[in-house]
Here is the input.
Amino acid sequence: MVFANRYEAALQLIPFLKKYAREHSVILAVPRGGVPMGYELAKHFNRPLELLMAKKIGHPLDCEVAIGAVGLEDQLVDPALRDVPLKYIDKQIKQIRKSLKERYRKFVGDRPFADLENKVVIIIDDGVATGNTILGSIKMIYRKHPKKVIVAVPVAPVETVAKMKKYVDDLMCLFVAENFSGVGLYYSDFSEVSDEEVISLLRKASTVAVQHKG
Here is the structure.
């Protein structure tokens, strides 16, 4: 299965998300690739669009192995860790959070993050590989007492879908790939999303959200 681009992939997700159309929901898009999709869905359902700002903490001996995740206000570290110095973890948390806050400020300015309590949180990305960062984010999101947490993506590997299903209330994946070798291979146009495009789409989405409140 190949999607024309991110916007077309978002349109294909709409029918699966209609059951949440009447819920008080917030769309969390993973920057930068998830933002064009998040915008399309936010516009269609007249819902606020936020950024899911999170990054995994890599193991000091292998940065690809996730030992935790850091968000704008929270962090999650594997409680079973025994071989990783606390000094390393603390340093990573501070560095990652500083970077996330700088990026968030660049994208949205000083606007406060949306309140997720008792909301249906819909996480959107253009595809998922290992799912480690999103899984860490999901666990942190649950601490904010949402009504439900939903993940909606166009493509992900079989094993990642199975892993994520255990941690969310609902998961929609248009194509579950058995021989997954990279998100970009499932798009005809997988052009890089620029910071400027992210900023522009968030501004447009904020106008939609204001109109919805009105």
In short: DSSP finds six helices and eight strands in the chain. Residues 6-53+115-213 form a domain with the Rossmann fold fold (CATH 3.40.50.2020). Helices lie at 6-17, 34-45, 86-108, 132-142, 158-165, 195-213.
